[in-house]
Amino acid sequence: MPSDTPEQQQPPHPDDDLDVLAADDAAEEIADDDNDMAMDSDDDDQELLLANDAIAYFDEPQDSLFAIAQHPAHPSLVAVGGSAGAQDDAPGAGWVVDTSAAPSRPVLPASFAADPAAAANRPPPASLPSLFSLDGHTDSINALCWTLPAGEVLVSGGLDGRMRAWKADVSPAAGLVMTLLGEAQEVEEVNWIAACPSPDSPNTIALGANDGSVWVYTIDPSDAANPLQIVQSYFLHTGGCTAGTWTPDGRLLATVSEDGTLYVWDVWGAAAARGIVDSNGQTAVALSPEDQRFAVEGGLYSVAVDPKATFVAVGGAGGAIKIVSLPRLGNTSSQQNKSSGVADATTGGQILASLHTQTDGVETLAITLAQTTPATVLLAAGSVDGSICVYDATRRFAVRRHIVGAHEEHSVVRVDFVKNSWLLTSCGMDGVVRRWDLRGSAGTGAQAAGGAAGASDGGLVKEWKGHRGDGEGGGVLGFVQGETGERVVTAGDDGVSLVFEA
User: Fold this and answer.
1) Cβ of 142: how many Cβ atoms within 10 Å?
2) What residue ranges define each of the domains in the chain, with the CATH number in brackets?
3) Cα–chain-centroid distance for residue 220?
4) How many CB atoms sit inside 10 A of residue 284's CB?
5) 469: left (phi over 0), alpha (psi -120 to 50) or beta
6) Residue of 401, 459, 457, 405 lying closest to 432 (CA atoms)
7) What is the CA angle 452-457-458, rounded to 5?
8) What start and end residues bound the annotated signal peptide (predicted)?
């Protein structure tokens, strides 16, 4: 979507309704008052200057940034992708930047926030150059990921249906060297890409497409003749495949669709080895709206698996969330000959909970294993209604916190926990990134997060501004924060990537 604001055209008025300036008066020179702002000043630039908490920015893109991905071994390397321009036929474009070039700001006294003079004297954000440009897409790049475990390959997916892969070599001497390995185009549009975390299957990714198909590729940089190898392809979804995620061990892949189905794919045969694969021979769990307990009118759009791989959460239209058990696979190599009774005891697919706290679509889900004794499992859900709801999975998914207006009246685009912590980071179409501390008890935040009541009720501890905001054209469409959450890097609908420091 174009990020430029169209010029405002003044409607014509009848002549007798206007006070016309006399010709002699019009000929007089009108001097600029030093205290007045020039009429042609760029309002967007002024707003960015006055409300920019970033320590660095990347503004080479000419239109919206739809995707962002962080290198797993070198977290300062961040890839962003979107469109090369605002035109409908503009090709896709992507870039890789090094955020380590952004200097940290010194710790400031508490009086800093209340001192406008001190705020005016803080160093401006640094401009980040592009290390490498991603090309070859004829439509917008809307999915990016680095392969696991070492980030050896950067994979892009586009609205043109292409998946392109670049080998990434990182060294102190040469810096970053990117080499195109190849591309595949089996679908009309790529919706998402997810890297497989299994150390036994390095450089493997899954992608979901608008036709409902799911594809798994292993990328072998050493095979020049066939670097992109199809491992599996699945065609059970009848609507667009909207989201997908691997279990933490990388043995199962969970995907959801606009048709309201959930499939947990047995990609490597681990479930089949335990005798718990479905009759279709492909899935360990298969649920559809035919089961009225699982039906979500309007489809499913988000999915997350808990760190212990005991359940999968799916979010959909109307604020609906379903919690479904996952099979316990155990050590398949040593338990292949277990009896069917034991296998049945570990079968997943049971609906553990149906949650419905929010009033509009659940677009993003995140799960953390917070460090307590015993450990606390929290599920966070971000909704189109602007709220964030946090459930306590260790207490039968009781609502721990419902932050109404977490991003004011704008959609929540993404939520993500700082690893194994109580800290939740969120972004929304209001153009703001916020961080919440979920420790302690809190009631429903009745006010917007920007207001005192909502912020205190919700546990708001930090917010970062700098994007244009105010809904369409200025929201934050994604972010990465590494494992520590010390730096947050964004992808903006306004075509800017910002680096914030916690």
Assistant:
1) 25
2) 363-502 (2.130.10.10)
3) 27
4) 27
5) left
6) 405
7) 100
8) none
**pLDDT averaged over consecutive 10-residue blocks of the chain (502 residues)?**
41 39 37 39 44 94 97 98 94 98 71 55 89 98 99 98 98 93 98 98 99 99 97 99 98 99 98 93 98 98 98 99 95 44 65 98 98 93 98 97 95 98 97 94 43 58 93 90 97 97 94
Secondary structure, 3-state, 270-334 = HHHHCCCCCCCCCEEEEECCCCCCCCCCCCEEEEEECCCCCEEEEEEHHHCEEEEECCCCCCCCC
- CB proximity list for 149: less than 8 A, separation 6 or greater: 72, 73, 197, 199, 202
Token digits for 203?
């450089």
**Sole residue written with tokens 């095979």:** 223
Helices (H), 106-162: 116-120
3 state SS of 453: helix
- Determine how β-strand 163-171 pairs with β-strand 153-158: antiparallel
Return the H-helix or E-strand segment holding 425: strand 423-428
Lookup: tokens for 472 = 């369409």
d(CA 208, CA 195): 12
- Residue keyed to tokens 């070492």: 150
pLDDT number for residue 45: 45
Is residue 499 classed as helix, strand or coil in its secondary structure?
Answer: strand
Q: Phi and psi of 454, rounded to 5°?
A: -65, -40
